Amino acid sequence: MLEIRNLHASVDGREILKGIDLTVPAGEVHAVMGPNGSGKSTLSYVLAGRDGYQVTAGSVTYKGQDLLAMKTEERARQGVFLAFQYPVEIPGVTGVNFLKTAVNAVRRSRGESELDAMQFLKLARKKAKELGVSEEMLRRAVNTGFSGGEKKRYEALQMALLEPSFMILDETDSGLDIDALKVVAEAVDAFRNPQRAMLVITHYQRILDYIVPDKVHVLAGGRIVQTGGKDLALELERTGYAQFVGQAA
Amino acid sequence: MTAASHPDWLESLRRAARAKADAAGLPSRRDEAWKYTDVAGLGVASFALAEKPQGGPPEAVPLGDAIRLVLVNGSLVASPDTPLPAGVVVDRLDSGFSADLVQAHLGRTIPPDAKSLATLNSALFADGVVLRIGAGVTVARPIEVLSLGQAGEEPLAFHPRCLVVVEEGGSATLIERHQGSGTYFSNSVLEIALASGAALRHYKLQDEAAQAVHVATLGVSLAAGAHYDGVLVQTGARLARHEVHAALDGLEASFALDGAYLGAGQQHLDTTTFVTHVGPGGASRQVFKGVLDDQARGVFQGTVLVQRGAQKTDAHQLSKALLLSPQAEMDGKPELEIYADDVKCGHGCTIGDIDETALFYLRARGIDEATARHLLIEAFLAEVLERIEAEPVRQAFAAVVGERLQGAHATRRIDDHRQG
Ligand SMILES: Nc1ncnc2c1ncn2[C@@H]1O[C@H](COP(=O)(O)OP(=O)(O)OP(=O)(O)O)[C@@H](O)[C@H]1O
Ligand SMILES: [Mg+2]
Fold it and tell me: Taking CB atoms and an 8 Å limit, are A76 and B366 in contact across chains?
């Protein structure tokens, strides 16, 4: 589903990704772990198409297409979804308006009919309830004044509404309390199917108990330095990254 | 023609204003208060003075259940036809019936400055309108003054004049809309006198014709415990200036005026305010937000003067502008002059760009860039529009803003296609 080849990317002229190779077949979940500043969020931004994240070499193929040639919104409409590590507060834009605009933009591009206000509200309320997002949060401005955990639930709600096929979860677990982590992680896990794939970026083993990965990659110094099965996450929990930090430099 | 019918006292007031205006001429950029805005340069001095329009009132839908007056080229063509609520008087300035009231208030809220365009208005206004809300009267229905500019081949000048007096403890909502077609110079003056405990909500939409020049002078005087709550939305005119003079004379008066403006093309939108705290314990708040595209230019000059006796004043002023194009320009000059020692005052001026992080977030959810920008601009202005309490008014004003934004995006999309 997603094939990253020799990906190099720079921000403000500084090279952060230094040759990433990563293939995620449909139906699989891959975890990405690695020390702070190793380039995990940078990779997620490059995949989502953020301005200022310049690809200097390499390629990314998504469902057989050149992902890097697509505009940000086009990638989202084709089913790429990034759950942000730091969701953005947008004062003045109400959640309902934002979510409805997004859902209908994606539906239009899939050739589906747009949802009217009533249909959308019904759907949003149902999904919100499943993820513990309150009615009050739906009415408020996007992420504005939300707690860290509320923001993460709200990312999960967007995922549930947009029904993407490739998800990048950038530390969706951080900020969630123990019960919320269970709710959100189980919702994500229920999303798994043979046509979908995901990249779960995390520092902790706990989320991987709910979303059991097919592979675990270690990203250090802008490269994938090790790949293993789900047990690698457990091992890292014990050993830390010291062995890789030296290796990457 | 109309001038001949004015009573003597009004006629002498006009003659004095005329003499002053003739001697002083139009303000130029050499005058400090007009440093950024060149109204004389647009040739308005040579525009013919509009005559009283012929024919009946134009068809136009009032906002909600508003009590409505219509001015065409500054002349009153439609008075409210329904019986007015008790305690409300709507009259022409020159009618004998309201002479005492008019004489007591006309020209009192605006400093006598020969060069101000208010002086020119005093010399040349046609009918003029006076609204009086009696003591203790709360008027539930808003009162709307609709000013239409109708110029044909020739550019026209006209000078709408309105006086609003709210007596002790009275309360009302005033809507002011300015629209039109053709090339014209609308030089309006609105004076608002609020007696003690009086309250006025004032919502103004300046959506003049694209070639119009709109200059408005607003004077507000506030006695003890009076409240003025205004929202000013500007989308129209080639050049517009909104000049405000507010005097918080009495104890614990409050004045709040927020504004939202959208400029594109060659538009020039100027907001100049003078807020004077005279009495103690007063509060004033001004939040102006502008969005400037293409070569549009915005000006915000705000002066807050806190006099010696105005202890415990709470005065805040903020100007924020979003520049959407590298050729757009914003000039800001906030000024605080404080002569009392126990006050809370603040001001700020920011000029920025669309928040790129927010734009990315919206696009990452499948929303196209034009729509995402539109959402963010509307959000930026929402804080101001949300202060309009009357639902139909808020919706109507927001719709005009929305159409403007949509229009701008439509042209941009066409340009994109041409380039791509
Ligand atoms: N705009 C920028 N200019 C310069 N350097 C940047 C910029 N943005 C990110 N970086 C740098 O890129 C590196 C990778 O950052 P990134 O956010 O991808 O790390 P991460 O692996 O997600 O870390 P964490 O685990 O803390 O979330 C860091 O050293 C960071 O300081
Ligand atoms: Mg990160």
Answer: yes
